[in-house]
Amino acid sequence: MDLPKQFLSRCPACYRNYINIFCDMTCSPTQSQFVMTTATIPNSAGEAVLSITYALSKSFAYGMYDSCKDVQMPSANDKAISVFCGIKASECTPQKWLDYNGNTNNGKAPFPITFILQDQPWISDDNVTLIPNNHATVRCNETFDNSTQPCSCQDCQAMCVPMLPPPPPKKDFKIAGTDGYAFIMACVYIVFILFFCSYVICYSVASSRKQRYVGSNNVSNDLPETDSKSYKMKNSAVHHVSMADIGCMEKIGAQVEIAITNTFTRWGIFCAKHPYLILVAGIVIAGALSVGIIRIDVTTDPVQLWSAEKNQARQERDYFNKHFVPFFRTEQVIISRPNNNTQVEHPLPPPSAENMNFSCLFDKDFMKEVLALQNNISSLVASYNDEKVTLSDICFKPMAPDYDYCTIQSPLQYFQNDVEKLDKIVMDDSGFFLEADYLEHFRKCVQNPTSISDTTKLGMSCLAEYGGPAFPWVVLGGFDGDNYHQATAFVLTFVVNNRLNKADNEKAEAWEQVFIDYMKNYKHQNMTVSFSSERSIQDELDRESKSDVMTIAISYFVMFAYISVALGQFHSLETIFIDSKITLGLSGVAIVLCSVAASVGFFSYIGISMTLIIIEVVPFLVLAVGVDNIFILVQAFQRDQKKPGENLEEQIGRIVGTVGPSMLLSSLSESVAFFFGAMTNMPAVRTFSLYAAMAVLFDFLLQITCFIGMMALDAKRREKHLFDCCCCIKGAKSKHPADTGGFLFHIVKEYYSKFLMDKWIRPFVVLIFVGLFCASLAMTFHVDIGLEQGLSMPEDSFVLDYFNNISVYLAVGAPVYFVVPKGHDYASTNGQNLICGGLGCPQNSVIGQIYTASRLKNYTYISQPASSWIDDYFDWLTPGGSPTCCRYDADTRKFCPSTDKNDTCYPCQLNNFSKGRPSSEDFAKYLTWFLGDNPGLTCGKGGHAAYASAVELINNGTAVGATYFMTYHTTLRKSKDYIEALRGARKLADDISTALNLTKPDEKVFAYSIFYVFYEQYLTIVNDTLLNLGVCLAAIFVVTVILLGFDFYSGFLVLTTILMILVDIMGMMYLWNISLNAVSLVNLVMAVGISVEFCSHLIRAFVVSTQPTRILRAQDSLAHMGSSVLSGITLTKLGGIIVLAFSKSQLFQVFYFRMYLGIVLFGATHGLIFLPVLLSYIGPKVHKAEVNYNQYKDIENNSETSKSSSPTSDEAPIFIHEKGVPSNYDSISTCNVIHL
Question: Ranges for the SSD domain (predicted)?
């Protein structure tokens, strides 16, 4: 009765009811009334019993069964009744339980016992009457004497406090049966349509009336006139702006404009005059920074990429690895036969005449092929540093040194990987009926994987070769419920030790490479195989990065080629080599590359690691910014006419003074935004933001230095009619007029801008873009969160099949460990009760709460109760048994395992074992023996196999440090499942900490699973996204306001347009199945920067334009900046983006091709269509200081004909270019400003 005591004594009522059956059978004075001997054999003492019949009342049998049916077996995460019933607990009945106990094949029954369950007297064939034993039973929630306690909730459902139902699933937000967000945005859109239509109608009426009245002292009332006649009327009037008309903020803004413009003008002249000095200085500085690349440190570890050191999951992972052992490395093979629907017919043993159909996997020949594959994998040999490495050298051996076998989870382990056992059969005496074979053995083993005997005539063990159980939900897949015989997949798992030091894993990695090579070449016509190793994902990511190098290179080559060609303006074939600007274009591209290299080198100097995403994304971003500025600068020069008396250097300086502030606005906005974006705690996003910010800054600095120098040299080359790329050859002098802006400029100015500003087109543009914004905003709430594993793999990766089969076949999720940190008092009874789940343990203990959570698995994602070392330790210490588990050698004073038959082994001397609890002294004294004891036939509670790594012993093994309690998650298939599993486990851990009254962060219980560190980011990804984008937008707003002369209104319009672009991109993400994760967040942050390029240049051109109406100013800004933005960003990027569509990487196709395409298209349409229309309606008023300056210049130009026309002090301009501020400006200043 040693095993029943070990497994059932945790529930005293169950154990007492169970042993009463055998006590009454052996010792009851009325034994003859319910026990009958059916066979005997003579011996020296008389007769020996060979078999008996035992009559039990149903009330006795069912009372015993009911008290024991829920008793747990912590080490196996199963119910103990499965051990004593011989089948799985869910199929056990009182009759089956007793029949198994009476069967000698169980290895414990001394002779066959036939149990008769009925309440009426039973009469045998020999007319012997038996009165069924009707011994009173005790329910599990009752005590049978004053010295015992009721069973715990975990072992007795009647002891559990009724559970509150789980919260109902979160319902979708609905209004009137439709999506709530869509309904709200539809209502908003309808209201906007009504308001906007009213606005347009009212303004149309006002505009028609205004045509009848012309003349005002103001520059313009900025009504949206569209009639050309109206424009002529307004333009013919003299709109005089005096100093008194200019407000204080406008004067401050003018001072900022003066400072920036004059600085850029002077700098441009200097660079144009000294191009070689500037080029040499720029190359030296950029080169010195780029040299830092030799110190580059590339981070490829996914943990370091996506989880910050201070993140909870990262700290918990580090704590687990430090105090226990890192989670095992797993090499897994999933085997299926998807195109084979045949069934294996298995006749059930007599007396049954029925057959049971097994799936095609259970064909014996097929199972032998699977075993051959398993053995071939096990025998693979790798080479590491001229040393042979086998699986045995690196695998996990839970029973070592007693059993030197690797842990291999496989359905063939039910046969101990032995072909002879697979072939073994037992026929009846006639030789006609099959009584037992491999399928019958399998059927019994999946019902009780821990059984040492399958209860069939085979009498074989179900334990694996390494000595542990092979749980069917681990080694089988693709079955419903517990119909394991209909499994559609075999799962082979080779468990390999993992080391904290990466260098110590190199042997394992070498063997894994041989394993991968073997499996890649493995072919079998009857078998479909998918596989993966611990290193597979990282290997495939590395391969993916290398395979996409060519795709990325082609993408950039297309963009570079376009830039080199598009910068030139060609007039005829005879001057094509003169008009070409290939050298200038390539120098612009080189500047982009140098800025990226300088950024990488700079951060390498200061020790900030880079990531591969920087190589993939930052050049794209900097190219967008840099090319846009290059096109604006070059095309502004091409469209400009040299003024009388102006040399080339002064012309270039004037051009730089004109467009330099716009370049500064876009570049500084983006750089500051990225620097602020680096405040995030997500390492990959933070690193990207830092590198991007510095690269954009370096790019701007090189553009206003080296590129201006190159532009000056190119202009001089062209003036001398020298060939591009070969300046030693002189060509023919051009007979064509000077550049007028080019074909695209002409199209935008003369056709597109006028078409867009048509009075019928503008309203439709607003309605379409606002409607798109409302629809996208509604869809934004439905964007998925997470990153499906398959997307990170190349399209031709073998791992994709493995990921797919995981979601289709696997029946159990990842292990989850609930860790109790160091500091808990395990030695005291109170401390033990707060942890345990057995006798005397409260329902809100650690084990109790995990058990309760497992009963709500669909809500908590906890599939089963946790294995509990402390409960098994109590059972292991419990006195009694033959022999007891805890024994010592009287001679050596060392531990005696239960298998040791030495006469000098005696039971442990426990000082006080009250109510199933050891004293503090005994708890610490014998714990090391328990953790070193292997479970066996006589003592199944040894803790070596299950708990050797679960308990951290400190103080030379005299105290307990950190411990964990392991269970499993339910099957997790999608990112959402992983996220919710993490969320549920953390909530459970918090509830446990609250029950234990643990308030300090370093004392709280926490949940750990291998995937938590990767999925933790998704718990806060929405908040992180809002914070990052919000900070970037705020930075852009501030910089825009300052550089536009404290024009808050213009800053608001830029902010609004960028926000609309972001929302539309989010809507596209929903429609195009792009989830929100760290990769897409990086792209969204980048989208903010690129959106600035689409908006800032245009709005600044609008602000400084002096056309009399908003419509004409919008046309003017669109003509001068729109064509450059279109040719600089849009067309450049589209060519490169299209190439990305041919990438083999799904990650590139989804997160780069799709998102980049959306960024460019939405940015271009908003910048070139929506923003000009928006400005034509509600753009800022004309810059009065600019008008004042134009008035001054007009009067100055006419001063030669009339001295009296010289400006008065009230007419003196506030807006002064490189000629400086007039001496009379200070005297008319009306607010405190800084005079330059």
Answer: 548-713
Report the distance separating Cα 845 and Cα 835, nearest Å.
5
| Tokens 């094509």 -> residue | 576
Is the pLDDT reported for residue 237 higher than 60? Answer: no
Share of the chain above pLDDT 90, in %: 39
Inter-axis angle of helices 612-639 and 582-605, nearest 10: 140
Q: Give tens-digit pLDDT for 697-747.
A: 999 999 999 999 998 998 888 787 777 766 666 655 655 555 555 677 788
Helix (H, G, I), strand (E, B) or coil at 175: strand
Indicate the SS3 state at residue 381: strand
Q: CB-based contacts of 938: which residues, under 8 Å, 6+ apart?
A: 2, 3, 881, 882, 883, 898, 899
Question: H or E stretch including 1050?
Answer: helix 1048-1071
Residues 6+ apart with CB under 8 A from 166: 856, 858, 859, 860
Residue 908: DSSP 8-state: -
Q: What phi and psi, each to the nearest 5 degrees, are found at residue 78?
A: -145, 175
In this model, does residue 1132 exceed pLDDT 80? Answer: no
Q: Which helix (H) or strand (E) holds 616?
A: helix 612-639
CA 282 to chain centre: 41
Q: In angstroms, what CA-CA distances link 633 with 394, 653, 658, 659, 674?
A: 63, 11, 9, 7, 24
Q: Is 1110 exposed, middle or buried (0-12, 13-18, 19+ CB in 10 A)?
A: buried
Residues in the chain: 1236
CB within 8 A of 481, min separation 6: which ones? none
**CB distance 246 to 1185 below 8 Å:** yes
- H helices within 476-611, ranges in order? 506-521, 536-547, 549-566, 576-579, 582-605
Query: Where is average pLDDT lowest: 171-180, 638-647, 1061-1070?
Result: 638-647
State yes or no: pLDDT of 454 exceeds 50: yes
Helix, strand counts (H, E) of the chain:
48, 30
Q: How far is the C-alpha of 362 from the C-alpha of 689, rounded, in Å?
A: 56
| DSSP string for residues in 28-92 | -TTHHHHEEEEEEEEETTEEEEEEEEEEE-HHHHHHHHHHHTT-EEGGGTEETHHHHHSS-GGG-
Asked whether 1076 and 785 are in contact (CB, 8 A), the reply is: yes
Question: Comparing C-alpha atoms, which of 614, 630, 760, 757 is closest to residue 700?
Answer: 630
State if pTM tops 0.85. Answer: no
Nearest partner of 763 among 313, 1185, 193, 316, judged by Cα: 193
Question: Residue 341 has which token pair?
Answer: 């629907």
The candidate with the shortest Cα–Cα distance to 162, out of 776, 964, 852, 1059, is 852
pLDDT for 735: 53
Helix or strand (DSSP H, E) at 531: strand 528-532
Paired tokens of 637:
């020069």
In this structure, what are the phi and psi dihedrals at residue 797, rounded to the nearest 5 degrees?
A: -80, 140
Whole-number mean pLDDT of the chain? 84
Candidates 845, 928, 855, 822; CA nearest to 70 is 855
* Cis status of the peptide bond prior to 737, with omega within 30 of 0: no
Quickly list H helices, 214-337: 228-236, 248-273, 275-290, 302-306, 312-323
Q: Specify the long-range contacts of residues 195-204, CB closer than 8 Å, at least 24 apart.
A: 196/763, 196/766, 196/767, 196/770, 197/763, 200/763, 204/759
Tokens 């202009």: give the residue.
715
**Left (φ > 0), alpha (ψ -120 to 50) or beta: where does 1054 sit?**
alpha
When pLDDT is averaged across residues 1066-1079 and rounded to a whole number, the result is 92
Position 468 scores a pLDDT of 84
Half-sphere exposure of 1021 (CA within 13 A, CB side): 24
